[in-house]
Amino acid sequence: MDHRYIASALPHHDARKVTSIIGSLDDRVPTLAIDGVELDIDEPARKAVIELLRQLASGTAVTIGPVDELLTTSQAAEILGVSDTYVRRLADSGQLTIEMRGTHRRFRLEDLVRHRERFQA
Fold first, then answer.
1. What is the domain range of residue 76?
2. What sign results for the dihedral spanned by CA atoms 27, 30, 113, 11?
3. In terms of domain of life, where is this protein from (predicted)?
4. How far is C-alpha 76 from the chain's CA centre?
């Protein structure tokens, strides 16, 4: 079962509202609620929700998935924004860590994120 979820960027009017609210927080981590019910979650989880909203409001689509999930070559290419062929080359050259499942390459989300961050810096 695929546990990934891809969230599209927010529409302009929603993005403006979210950006305004997040901007007013300064460095505070707000209490979060769903349908008026306050969520009793720790600060790292609240920060993750705020970062998700920040990314969506900035016009970025976001992929959410468990860190230990194994992804296919096509899914890895989507996350990195490159072709399947390029991902296979990265894996075969050792630049991306892979786990083999039979004859199929599988990628950990955390490895893909780390690779992407190295090249964005």
1. 70-120
2. negative
3. Bacteria
4. 12
d(CA 84, CA 73): 6
CA–CA dist 95, 89 (Å, integer)? 9
pLDDT band at 69 (very low <50, low <70, confident <90, very high): confident
Same domain, 46 and 89: no
Q: Quick check: 120 pLDDT over 90?
A: no
Closest CA to 119 of 75, 63, 81: 81
Q: Regarding beta strands 37-38 and 62-64, do their DSSP bridges make them parallel or antiparallel, or are they unpaired?
A: unpaired
- Answer yes or no: do 57 and 74 share one domain: no
Under the banding of pLDDT at 50, 70 and 90, the label for residue 19 is very high
pLDDT of residue 67: 66
Number of domains forming the structure of the chain: 2
Q: Residue 91 has what DSSP assignment?
A: H
